[in-house]
Amino acid sequence: MKKYMMGILVVCLLPLMLKAQVLTTVAPADTLWKKSFSFGINFNQASFSGNWFGGGVNSIALSSLLNAQARYKKDKWSWDNQADFLYGVINNNGQGYRKSQDRIYLDSKVGYDISEFWNAFFSANFLTQFAPGYRYVDLPTGGEDALKISDFLAPGFLTFSIGFEYVPNDNFSLRLSPFSPRFTFVTDTELYLNTENNTNYGVEIGETLRTEWLAAQIVAEWNKNITETISLQTRYMLFANYENLNFEEIDHRLDVMLNAKLTNYINLSLSGIMIYDYDQVDEIQVSQLLGIGILFQAEGAVVK
Question: Cα separations (Å) of 225 from 47, 66, 80, 260, 261?
Answer without folding.
Answer: 36, 18, 20, 10, 11
